Description:
Order of helices and strands: HHEHEHEEHEEEHEE
Largest sheet: 7 strands, mixed
Mean pLDDT: 90
CATH superfamily: Vaccinia Virus protein VP39
Low-confidence stretches: none
Helix content: 25-40%
Strand content: 25-35%
CATH class: Alpha Beta
Distance between the termini: 42 Å
Strand order of the largest sheet: 3-2-1-4-5-9-8
Number of helices: 6
Number of strands: 9
Amino acid sequence: METSKNHWEKIYSTKKSNEVSWTQETPVTSLDFLHSFNLSKHSPIIDIGGGESRLVDFLLEEGFTDVTVLDISEHALKHAKERLGNRASRVHWIVSDIIEFVPDRKYDVWHDRATFHFLTTENQIQKYVAIASDFIATNGFMTIGTFSENGPTKCSGLAVKQYSELTLYSVLRKHFEKIRCVTEDHVTPFHTLQNFLFCSFRKAA
Length: 205
């Protein structure tokens, strides 16, 4: 049976960024949420499942100095580093499955666009929430983008879990306070629509 890591390494070693549905030239919604937190430029930010996402490019351009990108695929991070060139040295890169991630520090912001919905078992979800709650600083922030109830049921050949504002909050409410949620249609490189739910949360004291 193919492991999750092997699946994603195959995707990122055989497809270009314009050949995968999640590619986004400008991560407008993610940036909007991050800007709403009124962060210091030195705030530690981690992008979960960042892969080839261009969010890191924008954060560096805006002057953020403590950015970490985590992804299960070494190939994905290699492509991101090549795109950034010399600027890649200003980023912390971590190759890990999120539910096996053991951080050595706390983060002020935990950003996740399109990773959480690939966790489909209760055990996976609870592991994710436990790691996030332990390693987001008190009064720190989390923003998650998942497929909404009107979004796809599969992505990249894998089953996903859809969320409503209520069901996402119910998973996180023990450790986080909801700030706001929005839905948006992501236009894929193939000109199809995927409906996402984005929510922001504050780590409870």
